[in-house]
Structure formats: C-alpha cells, structure tokens
Amino acid sequence: MSAYSLATLATVNANSLPTMQTSVQNDLFLRACRRQPVERTPVWMMRQAGRYLPEYRAVRATTDFLTLCKTPELVAEVSIQPVDLVGVDACIIFSDILVVPEAMGMHLIVEEGKGGPQFPEPIRSRADIDRLRLPDPEQGLKFVMDALRLTRQRLNGRVPLIGFAGSPWTLAAYMVEGHGSKTFRHIKELIYGNPSDAHMLLTKLADAVSAYLTAKIAAGAQAVQIFDTWGGLLPPDMFREFSLQYIERIVHQVRKAGAPIIVFCKDCSHALEAIAATGAEVVGLDWTTDMADAKRRIGSTTALQGNLDPTMLYAPRDVIRRGVRQVLEKFGKGSGHIFNLGHGILPDIPVEHAREFVKAVQEESVGYHS
Question: Fewer Cβ neighbours under 10 Å: the N or C end of the chain?
Fold first, then answer.
C-alpha cells in the first residue's frame, strides 16, 4: 500500500483507543463466528438500525442522512437502539458504504426522496481513477472511527460491535454508474470493454477498504462484514475475476487484525465454496440459498449467517416463528450458525414483528445446542 502500511495504522489506532470494556457479557455472536459452542443461536439483523424503528425516525427527523452518518453521538444512539428495543445479540455501527468513495475524493450527495445516494461526477475515465486517493481512515473517515469508539464505550460490553464496508465491486458499481441502476450499463461496459482500468479501480478500492476495516477493528469493532450487494450482477467467472479476488485481497489484509470477518455476497450461491475459500470466518447467505445445502457445502469449515426471507416479517407472528424453526431445522444441531435475515430488514416492518423474530430465534434455538 502506498500511503501507509496497514500494520502501522493498526498499531497507531490501537494505542489511541480510549479505555473501554474488553470483555463481552453476551459473546454468543463472537463464539458462533469462530464455530465455538454456544447455548443458543445468536441473532442480529442487517440494517437493524434504521427506518422501521420510530426512535430512529425521531433522530432522523432532526438532521439529514449524511450529517447523521458524520455525527458520532447520533451514530452511537441509533446503533444501540436495536440492542435496547429489539434485543439483538450484536450491534452494527450505523453508517453507509459510500463514505469510502467520498473519502477517496468523490462528491457524494443524498437528496431526500430522489433515488438515494448519488455521485454527480461518476468515474468514466482512467484519469478519474488516477485521481482517487487512498485515505487515512483516522483523517478522512475519522467520524466513523470516533463513532465506533463512542458506541463501544456506551455498549459497555453488553454485546459485540460490528463494523462493515462495501466490497470493491459493489462500491465500483455505484462510483461508475453515479447512482443505483437496473442494468448497471456503465460498470458492465468498463469490465467488458476496458478490464485493465476496472482492475486498477478495484485494486485501489480493495486497499482503501482493507485500511478502513483494519482501522475500524482498532477503533473498537469486534467483527467486520463485507457487503457485496451487487455480486449477483456478474456471471460466475466474472464474479470471481471482478469481485471475489478483491474480497479475498481484503480478507488477507484485515484478518491480521484478529477480528472475525463475514462476507455477504447477494445472489451468489453458485460460489459458496469460493467465498469460503477467501479465509473469512463467516459466509452470509441470502434468502434464496438453502441453509441445509449451504451447510453441506461449506458448513464444516465456515460459520454461516442467515437467512430468513426479510418479507416473512410482514407475516403473523406464528408464521415468523415457523419460518425461524425451518431455518434452524435446516442448519441442524451444532455450532457455527448466526441467525440473520437474508438481506436487510425492510423499513415498514412492524417493530413487534422484529421483536418476535429475535425472540423466536432465542427461544427456539436452545434445543439445537444441548
């Protein structure tokens, strides 16, 4: 890496950590990540700090999205809300994957009700790629590190804290398109028409994400997750070339920091063995993947996370509980399962249904660990 070494970064950040709780009262999630015995299956939800909670909406009404992301006190508040209000077994820091491209020099805007985050000047040339800088996370992304330190302090060891980042491919898709897309025409044109430039961009992103996640661990994250939301856009061979090899590059760098790494690639069940082979401790599953099949393929060496269909939380409580039982039955007895949804919780899910989901996992899973 050109700007600084990951080892130096981790050492500097670790030395600057405030005094915080080192032990975890509820360490089920961390034990499950490492496939160690647990008394019951731990559970948390992707996007658990968000719009389905009235308490989150109350905070959100006071500020715009990016200001919320960049205000550590507010980030700590909304990150911890699901722990207090829903009873999840892990806390994930509230942020957005696109703060990394912003720190690399891109202009990011989020306009309410206008299609989500946008980059008004997307990457369309080699010169645009060359201009991207490799940020020092304690400078360009200091607000995230401060939020992690504050959240870890306020959790006071109740549950573990998770940090996250987007995969290089997913970040590149947004950076090249400029916004979300149905076809992702421009990033597809780049990989098919000018693959050398695509690889340069993805390498740069992999190094930036590696430094970012390493810094997050030093700042207090006890596990990290890599989100490859758009991995399923790619045919299998292209997925390995333009997404998976860069995830593996990140895992190789970040695992030196000692925290478990979760890799979640949406719509990529064709590549479960290859994802597990990156060296990540946990592979996240979307709801289209059969849990029993995933356990047969990789569950003897890698922990699995997932994978209830998020839309099942619209259903009556007894249906939610039945769905939880089905996933538990498919995984069967033994360690190495972290219960989650197969994607993020949807913003109009009733809070009481989210609570029932968490309660159902915590109650129904006990018999699978006796």
Answer: C
Q: Which of 47, 133, 158, 317 is catalytic?
A: 47
Residue 289 has what pLDDT? 97
Q: Do the beta carbons of residue 306 and residue 285 sit within 8 Å?
A: yes
40 is catalytic: no
Burial of 37 (0-12, 13-18, 19+ CB in 10 A): exposed
The predicted pLDDT at position 179 comes to 85
Q: Is 174 a catalytic residue?
A: yes
CA nearest to 338, candidates 44, 119, 14, 23? 44
Phi and psi dihedrals of 9, rounded to 5? -60, -45
Half-sphere exposure of 34 (CA within 13 A, CB side): 13
Q: Residue 111: its pLDDT value, please?
A: 77
CA angle 117, 121, 124 (to 5 degrees): 115
368 is catalytic: no
Catalytic residue among 35, 40, 56, 96: 96
The pLDDT of residue 116 is: 81
Catalytic residue among 52, 56, 174, 212: 174
Q: Is 204 in contact with 130 (CB distance < 8 Å)? A: no
Q: What's the CATH number for 6-369? A: 3.20.20.210
Active site residue 51: yes
Q: Which of 60, 154, 317, 355 is catalytic?
A: 60
Low-confidence ranges of the chain (pLDDT < 50): 1-19
